[in-house]
Amino acid sequence: MPIPVRPERSRAAASHDPAAAGMPLPVRPERSRAAASHDPAAAGMPLPVRPERSRAAASHDPAAAGMPLPVRPERSREAAESKDPSLAARRRRRAGLTAGLAAAAAAAALLLAVLVRGPDRGPGALVASVRVKGAGLVDLTLVRERAGAIAFDPPDVGDADRWKVQLTCAPGGGAQVEVVVYQPGAPPAIALPARPFACGNAVVLAGAFRITGGAATVCARLAPTATGLAIVPPARPGPSMACRRLVAAP
Question: Is the pTM of this model over 0.70?
């Protein structure tokens, strides 16, 4: 006997299996436009941007409105000092200190100007310090030996006294010097001839001399070079001389 063959499923049964019936599988329909409108990205719409604050709202923020930030006005000095008297006292102290410092600075500037310029000399005035090119400010000191006693810049002169000359100026400089003695009714006398000297503290010139005849004026005649001392001394002390006056000893 032939083997029985299982009959195919009926069309009605196959209709429950779309693949078996040769039908395409159903595709899930897209959401409707009404449903998509709740999703702006799905609907192809740009995402909404939060609008900027209105001008009325921004006006409460000066920086956002492009306005300069308000500055708190300073209180007037009178109003502040009336509320706190110590402020006025502090201000007066500061003003006094400032005035004192200004006065001290002016005095220092005046002293510096005098030192740089050198002492002023009026007609017939004698000074013990003069400024000369190459040596700067040169100061004269007379050294007297009287009966074995040494005195610096003594006021009087005797016939038996022995004299030497010291010069002081900043180290490193130098000039030419000649010692001249002036006495009333007599021509200038050269006590020590012209010679060069190197600056230093209390530099003693070589040689010594005596002065006779009473009162005298002893001067160190200074010049940058020997040429300046080649001519005879002037009839009276000049501006390039450091001098000291001596009275006759009793």
Answer: no
